[in-house]
Amino acid sequence: MDDRDPFARAPLPSARRPFLGLTILVVEDSRYASEALRLLCLKSGARIRRADSLRTARRHLSVYRPTVLLVDLGLPDGCGGTLLQEAAAAQPPVPARLGMSADPSRAAEALAAGADGFLEKPIASLATFQAAVLERLPDRAPMACDEPPADELRPDPAIYRDDLATAAEIIGGEMEEAELDYLVQFLSGVARSAGDAPLRLATDALAQARREGRPRRNDLARLAGLVQERLTERAAI
């Protein structure tokens, strides 16, 4: 039996929970980054839905319209900019649309695709996240937030293993240029989100070798070794 008062007023947004009443759709292929965003959304009071691909996101958008759409630009089945374009052209459009990437140079790409703003991953703080969203919702006045300790918003490190396993599967397959492109951008974002400097540097080295047209076998082998090393370490814990 539901003993809630049907005439009770719903909680109002506050400085600590300014997103009460908002629904946010997070489109992010990294489980670690997605979990970090989930914690930010929940701390802010928002309802959250998640998708890990364009296909899944479109399925969500076919049945409901979120207040806020957060889209990673590099997804396994295409560019997140396509989804931002569709959300901006919809009638009515999704009210607030933000592109995301670990590569800050892609901000212009997100804005050109129809985003209202851009978030660089990993997101620096809860206050940064809240301000970026509230700026795109003019009917909600920005509110100051007493930010909780950073460790409260840190995802479970075990989730990082899922992303590493995805990368290992890609590396172990028949990689064409498209798969290699995806691997580089995926691992670059994952490593930055998790604060894994050695993996980030190895990914950057592979990306640099590709840009310069140099042989990349050694760089790819080093990257594969780091991924397997982390998977082995975590399996042993």
What does this structure look like?
Keywords: Phosphoprotein. InterPro entries: Bact_response_regulator, CheY-like_superfamily, Sig_transdc_resp-reg_receiver. This is Response regulator. It comes from Rhodosalinus halophilus. The protein is α/β, with parallel strands linked by helices. It folds into two domains: 131 residues, Rossmann fold, CATH 3.40.50; 79 residues, no CATH class. Helices cover 49% and strands 12% of the residues. The strands form two sheets. It has a five-stranded parallel beta sheet, with helices on both faces. A hairpin with a 2-residue loop joins β4 and β5. α7 runs antiparallel to α8. The longest helix is centred in the C-terminal third of the chain and has 20 residues. The chain is globular.
